[in-house]
Amino acid sequence: MAFHDWKLFLFLGRQNAFAKAWRSRKGSPSLGWKRCCHWSAGKSVDPEMRAFLEENTEITSSGNLTPEIQLRLLTPRCRFWHKKLDLWPYGDPFWAIYWPGGQALSRYILDNPCVVKGRSVLDLGSGCGATAIAAVMSGASQVLANDIDPIAGMAMILNCELNHLNPFPITIKNIINSEVGNWDLIVLGDMFYDEQLADGLHHWLRKCIRIRQTKVLIGDPGRHEFLRHRIHSQLHKVVEYSLPESTRQENNGLTSSIVWSYQPSNSLEGC
User: Fold this and answer.
1) Can you tell me which family this protein belongs to (predicted)?
2) Alpha-carbon gap, residue 118 to 86, rounded angstroms
C-alpha cells in the first residue's frame, strides 16, 4: 500500500500516539536513538538525520493556507509517498503533514499579528512547526514549540532555516497535565482525536486560564470528536477558512477549518 493511502491511517491513528503518551504521562514514545527532552534555540540537527529528512521530504509552500511559509513535508514526489508505511524507519511522521487546524491557526496569526506581537506563545503539538513559525514572523516575544516526537523537533529546526529564522526552543515531551507555565497564549491544532486526551486537554487548558489568565486558540476543521466534546460549548468562533482543494482531498473531504477562542469574552477576533 502506498504512503498516500496511509494518510487516512495517520489521520485516524494520530489519536493513539497522543492519547497513549498522555495516559502514560511519560512523554514521547521510545525510539531506537537518544531522545532530547528540550532543545534550546540554536540547537543543530544531527548530520545523518538532516540528510535523511532533506532526502525524503520536499520543500513546499503551495496547496495550503500559508504560502508565506516554506515547509519540508511528504508529498507525491517523495519516495516514501509510494512505499509501504512500515518501511518508514521512525515513528509515524505526523509532523510531515500540514494538518488543517494548524493551517487555520497559522493563517489567522499571520493576518492578525497583534494577537501574538510582544507576547509569549506556546505551540502545543506543534508538528511541522508552522504555527510557531507564524508566531515568530508576527512578532511574538517568546515562542516555545512542543511535540512528543523528537523527529518533529528536528523537522522544525529545518523549517525555521527555510524561513530564515533562528530556531525557537523546542520541548520534546508530554506537557499536558504538567505544571502551568507563564504563557500569554497557547495555540493548538488538530489535537482532539481521543475522548480521554480531549478531557486531559480541557482540564489542563482550563487550569492555565484560571491560574495564568492564558489566552487559548484552537484550530480544528470540525472533526466529530471535537464537535461532540463538552469543551465545544465553551468556545467562541473567531474565523473560518475555506481549505484549498489539495488539503480537502488529503483530509477526507473536510472543506473548512476554524479558529476557536477558549475565552468567549476576549477580543482576539481582529487587530
Assistant:
1) Belongs to the methyltransferase superfamily. ETFBKMT family.
2) 43
